[in-house]
């Protein structure tokens, strides 16, 4: 029987593992669905976070249905009717080319919500493997990886992202890849910390004692147990990425036209601030609401983490 | 104390080394031949060859890094690819604007955030407390530059209270400088004001629950005196931590906010250089901000030893 360690502090009746592996020399203990399921159950009880999640779901549906919901083609120009104030024919007014601001906002939802996912994917691809390596192997590898991560984190995120875009060349994808590189060390730190905790658990020792290889232990036994803190970090990073995408696009080095994210709309609104001050308000509020929701979800997720991981 | 300081300072070297390495490697991230990318769209072969020579692309890699790094150590960041101005001069010209904007934002965050947080913490769950909590969340969720634009729109353009854009050097006219910097600093600092108010609030609540505060109160010290004497210094620690973390964030934000208010700072330099692919200038900006952030975090750590004597022993 596995000795009760810190991770089994929650006395859940749904852990069949000990009975099946009782007497025989312990085979590889199965990765239990425990931590993840407990995590989600706790999360569902957070009311504010659930409201925020519902908002984001609705927004995603709006993004998906943008072609149906938009009263105009977002790219259709109508120069004679440029700078029409809100109300009238255009719900949120029209821009310098006579395009409907409301339709552009709806379509902008798509890129503003999807583009940050590219950044997160890059951050996962870099942060998770290197974080696990640093945490699991330790020694000089850990020292090296951690110092490089520290260095990246001491560079202002936006400035580093701008510099990376300059090197990679401006494009929507490159801007998001740059953001992913910027965020990877933050994720790496969380992963490394979580691995350091999990590494000491009895089931890892058991897996090691039956001769499983390092990569196998990391993939099959460590990874499933560090998913909850990774999700928490990713939710926070999504909010930062939405803000950063807006900043980069505002500066003209993020999402590139003809793609139009909320950040691109803000840039247009800023350029036409004197002629059409109404253009800049809605995209800003949209960004604020999304980031606020993501924060609430992130807070809810963090409060749902088990004691064992939260305490580190 | 001496040992702590020494270890902390020694720890800076690997970070600075890797920062230099990352900055140097920026050139190599360019897809294809960096010399061609840097020369721009309509470059002649001679121009490309000239850039290749100037950037040292013909030399072996380690040799390139060594000559670049030894240049940096002796204060030579190279020259701009578009005019032969030394990068160091370009960057130093712009730095005061960005730095003063950041400092003013920090100052505002402390002057506004700390009292608000103290008030909210002393009167937990009051209306003020709740309004502040909501404002704090909004402050963090809103892009700096959007707050800046809203301020321009309402305070400057509609009401004409403050100048909308432009910059006046502090040496020419300190009052005009302040008026021109106020809106940018509020825009940049809004999130930090919120964050500091939040931290001060929770710090205050924690301190108020401690025994020595209860004793002080029981001995008849009136609440304002309790706050002034005991709470402020204890609650200062999380505030300093937040400031340390926020400096990198503020420097980055300053780059964006400068664009809204047309301030001639590092942001403007950076954006122009990106559009021209002037990599040496970009490297200069990145390296300089890294050094600033590293030095600030050292200062923050040193201030802990002042605020909390326990740290000195470690």
List the helices and strands and how they pair.
The complex is a heterodimer of chains A (312) and B (314).
Chain A (H helix, E strand, L loop, with lengths): L16 H4 L13 H11 L2 H18 L1 H4 L31 H37 L1 H15 L3 H12 L3 H28 L2 H8 L4 H38 L10 H10 L9 H24 L2 H4 L2
Chain B lengths: L1 H28 L4 H6 L5 H11 L5 H13 L13 H36 L4 H15 L2 H15 L15 H35 L2 H8 L4 H39 L4 H11 L2 H29 L2 H4 L1
Helix pairs in contact in B: 1-12, 5-6, 5-8, 5-10, 5-12, 6-8, 7-8, 7-10, 8-10, 10-11, 10-12, 11-12
Briefly summarize what is shown.
With 312 residues, chain A is mostly helical. Chain A has 13 helices and no strands. Chain A has one domain: MetI-like (MetI-like fold, Orthogonal Bundle).
Overview of the molecule:
The complex is a heterodimer of chains A (312) and B (314). Chain A has 312 residues and is an all-alpha fold. Chain A has 13 helices and no strands. Chain A has one domain: MetI-like (MetI-like fold), CATH 1.10.3720.10. Helix content of chain A is 68%, strand content 0%. The two termini of chain A are 26 Å apart. Chain A is elongated. Chain B is mainly α and 314 residues long. In chain B, helix 5 runs antiparallel to helix 6 (127-141) and helix 7 (144-158) packs across helix 10 (223-261). The radius of gyration of chain B is 24 Å and the shape is globular. The chains are: A mainly alpha (312), B mainly alpha (314). At the A-B interface, helix 6, helix 7, helix 10, helix 11 and helix 12 of A face helix 1, helix 6, helix 7, helix 10 and helix 11 of B.
Largest sheet of chain A: none
CA radius of gyration of chain A is 24 Å
Radius of gyration of chain B: 24 Å
Low-confidence stretches of chain A: 1-31
Instruction: Indicate the multimeric state.
Output: heterodimer
Distance between the termini of chain B: 8 Å
* Overall residue-averaged pLDDT value of chain A: 80
- Which stretches of chain B of 5+ consecutive residues score pLDDT under 50? none
**What is the third-level CATH name, the topology of chain A?**
MetI-like fold
Name given to the CATH homologous superfamily of chain A: MetI-like
Characterize the largest beta sheet of chain B: strand count, sense, and whether it forms a barrel: none
Number of domains of chain A: 1
Element order of chain B: H for helix, E for strand: HHHHHHHHHHHHH
Main interface by residue count: A-B, 45 and 50 residues
Q: Under the CATH scheme, which architecture of chain A would be assigned? A: Orthogonal Bundle
Helicity of chain B, as a percent range? over 70%
How many β-strands of chain B, per DSSP?
Answer: 0
Strand proportion of chain A, as a percent range, falls in under 5%
Mean pLDDT of chain B: 81
CATH domain class name of chain A: Mainly Alpha
Number of helices of chain A: 13
């Amino acid at each position: 029987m596995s000795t009760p360690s810190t991770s089994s502090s929650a006395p859940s009746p749904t852990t069949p593992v000990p009975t099946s592996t009782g007497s025989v020399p312990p085979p590889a203990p199965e990765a239990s669905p425990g931590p993840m399921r407990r995590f989600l159950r706790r999360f569902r009880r957070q009311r504010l976070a659930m409201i925020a999640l519902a908002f984001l779901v609705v927004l995603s549906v709006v993004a998906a249905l943008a072609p149906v919901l938009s009263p105009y083609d977002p790219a259709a120009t109508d120069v004679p009717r440029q700078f029409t104030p809100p109300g009238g024919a255009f719900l949120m007014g029209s821009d310098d080319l006579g395009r409907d601001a409301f339709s552009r906002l709806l379509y902008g939802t798509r890129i503003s919500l999807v583009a940050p996912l590219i950044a997160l994917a890059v951050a996962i691809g870099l942060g998770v493997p290197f974080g696990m390596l640093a945490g699991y192997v330790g020694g000089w590898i850990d020292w090296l990886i951690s110092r490089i991560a520290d260095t990246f984190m001491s560079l202002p995120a936006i400035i580093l992202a701008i510099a990376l875009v300059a090197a990679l060349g401006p494009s929507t994808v490159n801007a998001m890849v740059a953001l992913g590189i910027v965020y990877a060390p933050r994720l790496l730190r969380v992963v490394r910390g979580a691995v350091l905790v999990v590494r000491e658990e009895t089931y890892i020792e058991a897996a090691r004692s039956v001769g499983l290889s390092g990569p196998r232990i990391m993939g099959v036994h460590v990874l499933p147990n560090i998913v909850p803190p990774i999700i928490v970090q990713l939710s926070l990073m999504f909010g930062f990425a939405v803000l950063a995408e807006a900043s980069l696009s505002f500066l003209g080095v993020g999402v590139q036209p003809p793609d139009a994210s909320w950040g691109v709309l803000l840039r247009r609104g800023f350029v036409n601030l004197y002629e059409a001050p109404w253009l800049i308000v809605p995209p800003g509020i949209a960004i604020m609401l999304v980031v606020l929701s993501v924060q609430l979800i992130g807070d809810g997720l963090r409060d749902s983490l088990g004691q064992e991981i939260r305490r580190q | 104390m001496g040992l702590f300081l020494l270890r902390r300072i020694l720890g800076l070297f690997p970070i600075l080394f890797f920062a230099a390495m990352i900055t140097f490697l920026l050139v190599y991230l360019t897809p294809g031949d960096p010399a061609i990318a840097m020369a721009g769209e309509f470059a002649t072969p001679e121009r490309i060859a000239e850039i290749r020579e100037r950037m040292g692309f013909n030399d072996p890699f380690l040799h390139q890094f060594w000559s670049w790094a030894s240049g940096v150590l002796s204060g030579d960041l190279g020259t701009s690819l578009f005019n032969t101005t030394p990068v160091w001069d370009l960057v130093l010209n712009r730095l005061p604007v960005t730095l003063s904007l950041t400092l003013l934002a920090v100052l505002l965050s402390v002057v506004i955030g700390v009292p608000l947080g103290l008030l909210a913490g002393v009167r937990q769950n009051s209306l003020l407390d709740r309004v502040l909590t909501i404002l704090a969340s909004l402050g963090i969720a809103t892009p700096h530059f959007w707050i800046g634009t809203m301020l321009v729109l309402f305070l400057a353009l509609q009401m004409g209270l403050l100048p909308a854009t432009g910059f006046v050097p502090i040496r020419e006219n300190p009052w005009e400088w302040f008026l021109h910097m106020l809106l940018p600093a509020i825009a940049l600092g809004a999130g930090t004001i919120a964050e500091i108010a939040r931290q001060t609030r929770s710090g205050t609540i924690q301190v108020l629950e401690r025994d020595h505060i209860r004793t002080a109160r029981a001995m008849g010290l009136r609440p304002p005196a309790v706050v002034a004497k005991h709470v402020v210094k204890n609650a200062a620690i999380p505030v300093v931590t937040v400031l340390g973390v926020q400096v990198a964030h503020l420097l980055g934000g300053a780059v964006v906010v400068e664009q809204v208010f047309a301030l001639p700072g590092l942001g403007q330099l950076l954006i122009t250089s990106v559009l021209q692919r002037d990599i040496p200038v970009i490297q200069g900006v990145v390296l300089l901000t890294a050094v600033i952030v590293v030095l600030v975090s050292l200062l923050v750590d040193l201030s802990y030893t002042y605020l909390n004597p326990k740290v000195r022993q470690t």
